[in-house]
Hints:
The protein is mainly beta. The protein has a single domain (20-141), classed as PCu(A)C copper chaperone (Immunoglobulin-like). 8% of the residues lie in helices and 53% in strands.
Amino acid sequence: MKQWMMIWALLGCTPAFAFEFPQVTDHWLREAPPNARMLAAYAKVTNTSTETLTLTGAFAPDFGMVEIHKTIEVDGVLRMREQPALALPADGEISMQPGGLHIMLMMPERSFKVGDEARICLIYADKDGNEHVQHLDFPVLKK
Ligand SMILES: [Cu+2]
């Protein structure tokens, strides 16, 4: 390819602002009984960019409904609250783990056992409000 063609192709295909996805580590889906109507997934999401992001939700092809939840104690009772917008500052992280923040997966269309993977997609908004979707495969673990 001639050099000018390469430059042209790059200009045409690359957005002016190259979005840098957060690093996702320790992501897993907790194994549940086959008839469970709700499953929980966890992950550590680290923003390695210099821009503040917001985690605005998630979706998963094998589930009818997905929300980001936080488990909180109200008058001695554990309740879950939806978190529609979690700030993820530059160099900051969101740590989802049992007893705290989690991805709540509802209306499963199949069962998951240890050894399976579940596709879960995280949705971020950048500082301009543009949406970016990160597709991830969460291994199913028994913990
Ligand atoms: Cu929940």
